[in-house]
Amino acid sequence: MAFSLPAAYLRITDIRIPDRVAAGRPFIITVSVEWSGLSSFIPVTKGFWIRLEICEGRLAGYPLSASDVRDCQSVTVAPSVNGEEVNPSGSKTYSIEIEAPKGAGPWNLVAIPELLACETWSHSTLFFIPRSGCWSVVNWGGEFWQEFKVRVVDKVVLTVKIEPGVAGAPISVDGTILNTDAGGIIHIEASTLDSHITIVPSEIAVGYHKKMVFVKWSDEYNVNSRTDVLTDDATFIAKYTTKYQLTVESELSDTSGTGWYDEGSQATFVVTAPPSDSPKGLFDCGHAYVFVQWTGDSRSTSPTASVTMDGPKNVKAQWRTDTQCPISGSTLLYVVMGSAATIVVALAVLLLVKRSRKPGAESGAPIAGP
User: Fold this and answer.
1) Shortest CA distance to 52 belongs to which of 144, 173, 189?
2) Alpha-carbon span 312 to 287, nearest angstrom
3) Cα torsion through 223, 181, 264, 239, rounded to 10
4) How many domains does the chain have?
5) Domain end among 153, 170, 192
6) Would you call 87 exposed, middle or buried from its count of C-beta atoms within 10 A (0-12, 13-18, 19+)?
7) Is residue 20 in some structural domain?
């Protein structure tokens, strides 16, 4: 049913509270208060003073009696028990910190705006109900205070997520190990009054030559173990980077570049030339090894090459063998043929010399004259 405000009033216009609060922990409520026409019933010489009281209790419901308000147990008063001086008309929003009770369950609270007035009287739409001392509430239509409930919990749900999501990753919460679901998530109930230790793996093997390495939490904390006191449901996101392994092989020499690389990065690998098998003599042959190209996930013909790490990679160096002889086959043939010819000539000369000698010359007899 529609109604209009009286000429003078003091009322609550809005209350905002958390959906739930942690048992035994402080929390904030905000209450907006509005007033008008205070000068119509408070002498100007006294000034205008108001305050907001939050008290605890179960009220019977509307219409409320004066005894309901008086019996409400005070929790806190804003801005203080002495109130604050205000203009005859105005509004104010109070942010009030109070502590929740130790036990879980609904907590019944009442917000009551109060006016400093040492006398009480009434007229057709307005009368005072004393609260304490000279502080009174202004009743118009039975709705001058507001009751509200706060949900107090001593258990909250902790959610831990691995990003990118991976199934089966072991996560420890206070020593209890839970494995992530297909989305990389676990849920666990935790107490609001204790600190909780959450540990995610520093590395997670996720396939052939593939792993995930912890980087940081979503709140920038960069250690994989964290301790938190929870006052509400919480979600911790552990961020990982994906790494792939590069394997570099060579049957004849040393290589470099084998290792783990971030997904999408460029990995450089190198092979060194193996030592040559040098000839040991004039007629021996040696061998030199010449790099041909990489095989596997690279076809580069350079000993130094790179590959994009969009998955596990394997490269192997291929070589060819070059034979090196101090004297080639044709040269050796010429040498042999030349040596043989020299021997033949020498033998022929010796034979001619032998034939040119006479038989008498060898005996030493004189040669007869004519």
Assistant:
1) 144
2) 35
3) -20
4) 3
5) 153
6) exposed
7) yes
Single out the residue of 43, 17, 31, 191 nearest to residue 103, CA to CA. 191
Q: Can you read off the two tokens belonging to residue 235?
A: 């979600």
The rounded distance, in Å, linking the Cα atoms of 345 and 342 is 5
For residue 222, what are the domain limits? 155-242
Lowest mean pLDDT among 90-104, 292-306, 333-347: 333-347
Kindly state the tokens that stand for 369: 């004259």
Q: How many CA atoms lie within 13 A of 200 on its CB side?
A: 31
The encoded tokens of residue 61 equal 């419901």
Encode pLDDT of 64-97 as tens digits. 555 555 567 889 999 999 899 999 899 999 999 9
- Token duo for residue 318: 């291929």
Query: Sign of torsion, CA 328 334 339 340?
Result: positive
Locate tokens 């006398």: which residue? Answer: 119
Query: Does 191 share its domain with 262?
Result: no
**Two tokens, residue 14:** 């809005």
Pairing label, strands 225-229, 195-199: antiparallel
